[in-house]
């Protein structure tokens, strides 16, 4: 029995639905943890203004095999994703955003800089480094950046002595 409002699916499409679903599910199985990226520095700046946080700015080139390998082997690693959980991550084009890369000490792609809330580079790394090298650099840069964000220790000042009472 056919319903007048039911969409008609061609028979060829009906046969391909299981294949399409299996391809989608296979592709989803390959998806692992990933970093949440901003692709516009202004959106990252807005987030940092709402909730102060360090930024990790990653510079890449769309045509670079080294960048693609770095992203697959390092930036998608579960430990790297976990280390970047509280960091605002920005992905920029090295070719188009060269002034920022130069300002933050990134001299080629792939490269990254940890940037503080004031927009100053805490540390930069350049080149296709290994996962372990990247994690060591990131740990050091984040410790330095977080220490700089904390207010300086203030030694408690003793209250002034009470004024002498004159009888």
Describe the overall structure.
With 167 residues, the chain is an alpha/beta fold. The chain has a domain at 33-146: Glutaredoxin (3-Layer(aba) Sandwich), CATH 3.40.30. Helices cover 43% and strands 15% of the residues. Strand 4 and strand 5 form a beta hairpin. The radius of gyration is 25 Å and the shape is elongated.
Furnish the topology, listing elements before pairings.
Layout: H1 11-30, E1 37-38, H2 41-50, E2 55-60, H3 65-75, H4 78-83, E3 88-93, H5 98-103, E4 111-115, E5 121-126, H6 131-149
Parallel strand pairs: 1-3, 2-3
Antiparallel strand pairs: 2-4, 4-5
Q: What's the name of the CATH homologous superfamily of the domain at 33-146?
A: Glutaredoxin
CATH class of the domain at 33-146: Alpha Beta
Order of helices and strands: HEHEHHEHEEH
Give the beta-strand count: 5
| Main β sheet profile | 5 strands, mixed
